Amino acid sequence: MTDQQVAHFTEVFNRNRATLALFSKCSTKDELDVVRDAFFLGMASQLCPNEYEAMRESLITDDTAFDAIASSINTDNGLETTVTAARASPHWLDLVTAVHAVSSAVGSDLDGIWNTLEKGRMEWLGAVTAAHPLKVILKEALNKDKNKTERDEVDMKMVYIYALSLSIESLANESEAWRKVVKMKNKANPLQDYNVDLWDPRKEEWRPLDLGVQEAAERGGSSFQAAWDA
After folding, report:
1. Residue 100 contacts by C-beta under 8 Å, 6 or more apart in sequence?
2. Is the overall model pTM greater than 0.85, yes or no?
3. Which of 8, 24, 34, 58 has the most crowded CB, counting CB atoms within 10 A?
4. Does one domain contain both 150 and 79?
């Protein structure tokens, strides 16, 4: 590959970043698969014109596929409908193979890039789902407390951060270290025997747990505050 071809690939990749970024809006593996394949479509349209044109023509000549795509334009399921039709094309595999061939030729691992995004998103969604029941309890307690202070909300957020960390594999050591600091007997129930004096964010064991959860949120295309506010 020449420097010009590498530069072209990079330009095309950057043009399709907006599609790639849609991973942060996904709530399921199926939705992530749609975004991934929409990204491949976008890349192929500019990198693999022959394969893309063959696939496009097959959709145009398939009345069912064409009508489905046309009727879904500017709707919430437009992207999914287009991707579903493209996957059903006899030229879909050729298109995906061609995109990967160009990617490999310039030293770019598209599957590796995507798998990192997908893993981060699924991990964060799992953490948020697992910690949701506790978050409901925490926020209900805050809402009922007419005399709550800013520190009270900080305390509740700390408990939520800990709960999120339990589903983040890379934070197993950090969450265990914090459990010991606050003398938590049941790691799955941080409110049992909760001692506000022990839950001090100034303790050195807190920072790696706090930062770790925030980094996990970023890998998942979100933020801790967004999860707390949801």
Report:
1. 110, 111
2. yes
3. 34
4. no
pLDDT, one tens digit for every residue, the chain (230 residues): 688 889 999 999 999 999 999 999 999 999 999 999 999 999 999 999 999 999 999 999 988 887 888 888 888 888 999 999 999 999 999 999 999 999 999 999 999 999 999 999 999 999 999 999 999 999 999 999 888 888 899 999 999 999 999 999 999 999 999 999 999 999 999 999 999 999 999 999 999 999 999 999 999 999 999 999 99
Looking up tokens 């970023």 gives 218
Give the residue numbers spanning the domain of 126: 119-229
**Structure tokens belonging to residue 26:** 């996904």
Same domain, 47 and 136: no
Sequence-separated (6 or more) residues with CB below 8 Å from residue 193 = 183, 184, 185
Cα dihedral 19→20→22→23 (10° resolution)? 160
Residue 39, in any domain of the structure: yes
Closest CA to 20 of 138, 72, 12: 12
Residue 113 placed within a domain: no
Same domain, 223 and 140: yes
Residue among 64, 63, 47, 44 at smallest CA distance from 55: 44
The vertex-23 CA angle with 20 and 24, nearest 5°, equals 120
Q: Is residue 129 part of a domain?
A: yes
Residue 122 DSSP SS3: helix
